[in-house]
Amino acid sequence: MTEKKDFLRDIWYYALPGSLLKPGKMMAKTFLGEPVLLARKHDGQVFALRDICPHRAVPLTCGRFDGQEVECCYHGWRFEESGRCTAIPSLVEDDALDLNRFRVKHYPVREVQGNIWIYMAAKDSKKEPSDRDIPLVPYFGDRSYQMMVTLRFPCFVDHAVIGLMDPAHSPYVHRAWWWKSGRVLFEEVKAFDPSPYGFTMRRHEIPNLALGYKLIGGAPETEISFRLPGVRIEHVSTKRHNVCNLTAVTPISENETDVTTILYWTMPWITALKPIMKPFVRRFLDQDRQVVTKQQIGLQYDPTLLLIRDADTQARWYYQLKAEFERAKSEGRDFVNPVKEQVLRWRS
């Protein structure tokens, strides 16, 4: 496996938790190397624009936002939510200049289940984004999350994604008294099926429960799905309770990637433990970040990476899914999932 630093386009990416963007406020973000302004109007509607004024290239987030329009700090040019220029104060009253000539790139955004998603289109793309392609956690309807942790990984998006789906690293990377000791490895046998833009590990009872799963009580079962561009959703359920974990990988640049873990649950008593739990969730995610940071030492020498069966099959699928996504776009046809129904075995 050799590295090719290409970002997928014409697809929804996780942007940020909706609670971080307050009404009447805007913020600067970077996605796939592009500067983006995210803002929430006073009525609660969210919009996104390219964070560069087309006049003199000053970031629009350096200016002002009145809850309706963004005003550049340099010359006061104003832009509304679609990116259309609405005012150029330096123009004299009888100037017939058509303001429609001056626009800022607009990005489609949607807010669902407490999360803001952004559609990153390819240049000159004519593909219309479909809301049906936005990842959703099952069972929780329109409810928002109860806990969120984001960490920035110093790597290209592929390495963060592969680390996310790697089934064999847990006893070594996540070795801790509250998760796994790493002293004993168990054979895992799991069935997988193709699912939209990805694959799903079939629902099964969780053997050899780590402490984190024991908190749910009962005999928990889990189903884990992955889909492009880098979203993993785990649904754990018992007869009484449900827990969902959505982990989204968002490329910032070729060398930086945000990984966000979002938790939903139905157990009221866990909410009271949230201040205690959150440091453990952050620590768990940071263990992945630390090993990826170490990985960068070797990657600077551009090695060819070797993948094995069956523990690395999910990583193979990821690259196959990316390749098919790009081929389908270039050939103007529907995506055909390359993943086939399969049983994988590994020790973890």
Give structural notes.
The protein is α+β, with helices and mostly antiparallel strands. The protein folds into two domains: 11-131, Rieske Iron-sulfur Protein (3-layer Sandwich), CATH 2.102.10; 142-347, Naphthalene 1,2-dioxygenase Alpha Subunit, Chain A, domain 1. It contains six helices and 19 strands. Strand 2 and strand 3 (34-40) form a beta hairpin. The protein is globular. It comes from Aliterella atlantica CENA595. Residues 13-118 form the Rieske domain. One of its GO terms (molecular function) is 2 iron, 2 sulfur cluster binding. It holds the Pfam family Rieske.
Shape: globular
**Cα separation of the termini:** 23 Å
Give the helices and strands as they follow along the chain: EEEEEEEEEEEEHHEEHEEEEHHHE
Rounded to an integer in angstroms, the radius of gyration calculated over CA atoms is: 22 Å
What name is given to the CATH topology of the largest domain?
A: Naphthalene 1,2-dioxygenase Alpha Subunit, Chain A, domain 1
Q: What's the number of domains?
A: 2
What would you give as the CATH superfamily of the largest domain? Naphthalene 1,2-dioxygenase Alpha Subunit, Chain A, domain 1
Structural class by helix and strand composition? alpha+beta
Proportion of helical residues = 10-25%
Number of helices in the DSSP assignment: 6
**Most strands sheet:** 8 strands, antiparallel
Tell me what portion of residues adopts beta-strand conformation. 25-35%
In the sheet with the most strands, the strands line up as 12-18-17-16-15-14-13-19
CATH domain class of the largest domain: Alpha Beta
Specify the CATH architecture of the largest domain: Alpha-Beta Complex
Runs in which pLDDT lies below 50 for 5 or more consecutive residues are none
> What is the arithmetic mean of pLDDT?
92
